[in-house]
Amino acid sequence: MSDQTIQETNPVEPTPEIQEPGNLQPEKKPKGRKKAFRYVSMLVVVVIVLSGIFMLWWIAGEMKRQKKEAEAAAKAAKESQKADQEQQEKPKVKVYKVSKGEFIWVMETLGTIEAKSKVELRFEVNGIVDTINNKEGDQVKEGDILAEINHEDAELKIKFRRSKLEEARIEEKNWKIKVDQNKVLMDNGALTPLKHEESVLALERAKQGTKSAKIELDSAQSELEKTYLKCPIDGMVRSAKIQKGEYVTSQTKVMEIMEINEVHCEFQVLEKDIQDVHKDLKISLSLDAYPGEMFSGS
Asked: Does the predicted TM-score (pTM) go above 0.85?
């Protein structure tokens, strides 16, 4: 009894069997664990497959949505382009309120202004141009000096002729005194009538000499006047064709003056508009020389 109790209290542990390394064998897993592992693997595969299917479905939906958006945008752009094209193709229409009034026919054209009368000016004597006082486009008045040629020689002639006239006048005065004295002497019997007659003839020659000197002075003054080119009418300088220092003759055209009190306009009319042009037609025109101003005529 006691021996049995002792064995139960102190059981003898079995001695583990020591196997040689070459005789080791794998431990066998339980069948329940294999089955659970198979189920988990199948579940993972199913989840992966479902995830792939979901991704494919989402990508296909996204592509379809983007395609619809692209088609909608293209359609909107096409409709907008079509609307713009239709808007451009629509004719522009101006609407006017109808009222009673005077109808004005407007025909725009280019033309030139021509003076009713023109005067070509030339110097009467030959010489070198010394002064030009006006240019093309200047308004001038009758008597204005437009240009001058060198007149030093003409002034010298005037001085010379004036001195000759003074000498002739002095000689005439002296012979007049002489005639008066000889008359007194002749009346007193101190001088013969022949001598008195000679003094009278000398006085007449002196008078003729004075007249000749006066004519020569007037001629010299006339020559001086010819060195000045004076305007004969009120008007405008149309052209000036000389330069300072240029030698001119009586055949050289110096300037052209046009009378601007009355002018006429020359312009071209299209063949289709000729039927609308007639005498006394009222016209309005503008000139480059007077910007912003309108002139009327017929």
From this structure: no
